[in-house]
Amino acid sequence: MVFTPRQQPTGPSAVWVNKPEDQLPDGVTHHTFYSRAHQTDVGYCIYLPPGYDPRADRRYPVIYNLHGAGDNELHGFDDVRVLDAGIREGRWPAMIAVLPNGGMRTFYKDSHDGRFQSETLIIRELIPHIDATWPTIGARKGRCIEGHSMGGRGATRLAMKYPNLFCSLFNLAGNVPRTLAHFDPSAPDYPNNYLGPDRQNYIDNDAYELLRKNLQDIRGKLRIQMWCGTQDMGHLATVRDFHQALLEADVDHTYMEIEGLGHRKKPMIDRYRDVWFDYHAESLRRAADWE
């Protein structure tokens, strides 16, 4: 389903299965799986690399590409076209990419009232389903997570909370807010209608708190890349803030501000397409060496 700007929901919502209206890119197919958390089928797209043979005894690393606000599983096609071209040219090893549906404006968090369980959907349902259904390397050494905007924000928090699941994180222009700072029972809009009245929910959804909590499993084990355009005024401040937090925690990472670009992903991909998946590829190589 495609919404016009006037139709876009302003709060959390979801159309859990969206049918492709156009031809999917080479290697991409659309599927569904059953979510117990939502008691319904949920859609996802998967990219399988050239040479994939379901009869062969070969397993592939996998990238989870999380979509932005208002989007669904029919996203990330510019990314997979670049990945496919790079694999065919020998620039990157063969990889699988999964394009999940995390719901619109859920920020990949579980709501306190149980209506939206997007963290549970990705971590406890989709990833096990993918590993059981497709020939993935079902371990940290073969798993990457990334996203743009809301997807980058969600990918960052999930990687901070579950660092043992991923060897590589790419946050592309995703806000990294100090969620715990927004817990304020004296505020007129308290409690937050998504996280509710429990302070622990704010701690569990704060990437900075999770960084401190899981630092031993992050430092030297999870490779982190963060990019943001210098004209992206809605996201640059918190991306810089988290970059500084990583420096203070002595977490080695790659950080880049892209001169002159705003929040749109396509111009970034066009500018850096030849190196777009270099970071994940290097993370996977190092993770395999570590283990």
Concise summary:
This protein has helices at residues 77-88, 118-133, 150-161, 199-204, 207-213, 215-218, 236-248, 265-272, 278-290; strands spanning 28-35, 40-47, 62-66, 96-100, 143-148, 168-172, 223-229, 254-258. It is α/β, with parallel strands linked by helices and 291 residues long.
Q: What's the shape?
A: globular
Q: What is the CA–CA distance across the termini?
A: 42 Å
- Secondary structural class: alpha/beta
Instruction: Determine the CATH topology.
Output: Rossmann fold
Beta-sheet strand percentage? 15-25%
- By CATH, the architecture is named 3-Layer(aba) Sandwich
Main CATH class: Alpha Beta
Order of helices and strands: EEEHEHEHEHHHEHEHH
What does this structure look like?
This protein is of the alpha/beta class and 291 residues long. It has a single domain (28-290), classed as Alpha/Beta hydrolase fold, catalytic domain (Rossmann fold), CATH 3.40.50.1820. The protein contains nine helices and eight strands. It has helices at residues 77-88, 118-133, 150-161, 199-204, 207-213, 215-218, 236-248, 265-272, 278-290; strands at 28-35, 40-47, 62-66, 96-100, 143-148, 168-172, 223-229, 254-258. The protein has an eight-stranded mixed sheet with strand order 1-2-4-3-5-6-7-8, with helices on both faces. The termini are far apart. The model is unreliable at 1-6 (pLDDT under 50).
